[in-house]
Design a protein that fits this description.
- The protein has helices spanning about 50-65, 105-110, 135-145, 165-180, 180-185, 190-210, 225-240, 260-265, 275-285; strands at about 1-5, 10, 45, 70-75, 125, 130-135.
- With about 325 residues, the chain is an alpha+beta fold.
- It folds into 2 domains: about 1-150, Glutaredoxin (3-Layer(aba) Sandwich), CATH 3.40.30; about 160-275, Glutathione S-transferase Yfyf (Class Pi), Chain A, domain 2 (Up-down Bundle).
- The longest helix has 21 residues, at about 190-210.
- The chain starts with a strand and ends in a 28-residue tail after the last helix.
């Protein structure tokens, strides 16, 4: 793994996302002359189909029907010493359609030639000013739902103003113990750290499994951003986190309600198109040489995401 230091690429082994990055915000209109007004065919999203953080932004883009408003490029799922790479010859990958770059880091240095920090996905890029607007997935997901309301072709509101406090509370609850919990387990430095992370993870999963026995979605009867933030972790759970990160107390399919809930979301129109198990498995098993030095990718498991569910009768 590597990072940029004063615009120069260096390899290093640190796994944590650092605090440096881009944090501008797209505004709904040109009122008060915002630097980044919400305009169609202006912004571009760089993602990896393997990355759960990038997955949440791809989900919002599809669930709100913004495919014709915000363009998209997909990097190679395997991240080696040179960082995220564009390999259009590989299945379901694309070239950098904006700059023709070979590596995502080139997009970063175009914005800031002296940039220091991790080169991460997702990236929301402004083609008019030729700069990165934001590279924090939670910010991008929120602004796609908020700022592009007038351009969305699907009316589903994922972050309604009257429910934001409750949505944010749930997001914060699942973030540390579930979204980050699998990483805390997988990259633990000691046995005690690993066991603590696994314990917190499965306590949280069991709590939400109980909750989802009473309601269809995390907040109630409507799909919200909270569900969008949880689903990418659940989608990857049996394929990589259960084995690769040793989160093997239970599989997702062993939970009475969580597995049905995840299939319910997967079968929501537009969601399946954002999912790619081949990319997910290739990334985790071939990018983390210290955890899986052989680079072998498991054949299984076979998961029937199209299996019918009765979530519509809950609540």
């Amino acid at each position: 793994m590597g990072r940029l230091v004063d615009g120069e690429w260096v390899t290093e082994t640190e796994r944590e996302r650092d605090g440096q990055g881009f944090d501008a915000w797209i505004q709904l209109s040109r009122a008060h002359a915002p630097a980044f007004p919400a305009e169609p065919n202006r912004y571009h999203l760089y993602i990896s189909r393997a990355c759960p953080w990038a997955h949440r932004t791809a989900l919002v883009r599809r669930l709100r029907g913004l495919e014709g408003v915000i363009s998209l490029d997909i990097v190679d799922p395997v991240r080696r010493d040179e960082g995220w790479e564009f390999t259009p010859s590989k299945r379901a990958c694309t070239p950098d359609s904006i700059h023709g770059a070979d590596y995502l880091r080139e997009v970063y240095t175009r914005t800031d030639p002296s940039y220091t920090g991790r080169v991460t996905v997702p990236v929301l890029y402004d083609t008019e000013t030729e700069t990165i607007v934001n590279n924090e997935s939670a910010d991008i997901a929120r602004m796609l739902d908020e700022a592009f309301e007038t351009h969305a072709t699907r009316e589903r509101k994922l972050y309604p103003e009257n429910k934001r406090d409750e949505i944010d509370s749930i997001i914060n609850s699942i973030h540390r113990d579930i979204n980050l919990g699998v990483y805390r387990a997988g990259f633990a430095d000691t046995q005690s750290e690993y066991e603590a992370a696994v314990r917190d993870l499965f306590e949280a999963l069991e709590q939400w499994d109980d909750t989802l026995g009473q309601r269809r979605y995390l907040l109630g009867e409507e799909l919200t951003l909270a569900d969008v933030f949880l689903f990418p972790t659940l989608y990857r759970f049996d394929s990589v986190y259960h084995t690769h990160f040793k989160c093997n107390v239970r599989r997702l399919r062993d939970f009475e309600h969580l597995f049905d809930y995840a299939r319910d979301i997967y079968q929501t129109p537009g969601v399946a198109e954002t999912c790619n198990t081949e990319h997910v498995k290739a990334h985790y098993y071939r990018s983390h040489n210290d955890i899986n030095p052989t680079g072998f990718v498991p054949v299984g498991p076979e998961t029937d995401w199209e299996k019918p569910h009765d979530r519509g009768n809950i609540g």
